[in-house]
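Cross-posting from the chemistry board since nobody answered there.

I work mostly on the small-molecule side, so proteins are not my area. We synthesized adenosine-5'-triphosphate and want a rough idea of how it might sit in this target. Sequence and SMILES are below. Is it possible to get a predicted 3D structure of the two together?
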Amino acid sequence: MSERSERIDEHGVRGLSSGAGGPISLLEVDGLGVSYGRSGRVLSGVSLSVRPGEVVGVVGETGSGKTTLVRAVVGLVPADAGRVTFDGTEVTALRGRRLRGFRRSGGIQLVFQDPLRSLDPDLTVAAIVGEGLAVAGGLTRAEQAERVDEALTRVGLDPSLGSRRPGQISGGQRQRVALARAIAVRPKLLLCDEPVSALDASSRNRVLLLLDRLRRELGVAIVMISHDLTSLAGVVDRVAVLFGGRLVEQGPVGEVFGDPRHPYTALLVASAPSIGERPLGRPAASLRPARDREPWRHRDGCRYASLCPFATEECAVEPRREARADGRAVACHHADTWSDLVGPTRGTTG
Ligand SMILES: Nc1ncnc2c1ncn2[C@@H]1O[C@H](COP(=O)(O)OP(=O)(O)OP(=O)(O)O)[C@@H](O)[C@H]1O
């Protein structure tokens, strides 16, 4: 038995903690559900945990709910089910002043895809990087300036760049500035929403290497959201796959990408052959439903069933996410059997 217990934090809110008083995981998302008015449920039953210093990837196609997950974690959109606990504080229970106080404390920092949109074009780089420090308070101007220079240096930028404005530096440099701004307040968790999608291939690689270095040097945990498996593959420890607002599979990245257990993950992997040393020995086309298959007529059940070539009547009932002995969790009735239906999933190089 783990020594999990509930404790009351400084905000008077319940949270999980280890018997020793420290949190077991830094971030615990448990059964999270989010709805937007008429759009209906956008996230359902999402559970994810991130340990201190760990890098977790969340992959999913456009509209699968990736950004909503990020926003719900910091309380920018309200959850209508489940809870989010960060470093012992139940974020989903915070409202108003206490929620703003939690965000200002800077424990979680967001880094967005498009640095030009997220950086104020009228401010200097130094002012942008120092924004969070100014909001958090407690430092003299000289101390703030020192922390700004330190953050810029850490992301590989010369502090002299501090006097420029976002329009006067390159796209790769802007993404570094966004990272410098995030790490200046010494957060425990970076939530990076498509951090490299707007960059060209060489800048993308440099920023990915930088994220890896920041995690090692600062011990900061990172949740990296992306639609691109290739970007995640070299950086993350674990990966979670989001489809239609549900996590369909999660586990150590090498295993999930090397031997996917959910047909949707398998399709993603087969569509991105560059990611694995052990690519799936199957073309993506074989993981899509045959044209002559009858349309899926059930409304409930597995969200992926209408697109899944392996769906059976059983899939009309929503699959539970089964935790497996190898540290993975898969939500598929046929997780262990679908791949046998059409031959081996592993490639010949594995
Ligand atoms: N403010 C909002 N009001 C209503 N519906 C919304 C809102 N924001 C997002 N949605 C809807 O919620 C769903 C998930 O959106 P979200 O932005 O979380 O997806 P995503 O996976 O991040 O997509 P992308 O990769 O395109 O950014 C989409 O169907 C979207 O249209």
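Reply from a structural biologist on the board:
Welcome over. Reading the output above for you: The longest helix spans residues 201-218. The chain is about 30% helix and 20% strand. Happy to explain the token format if needed.
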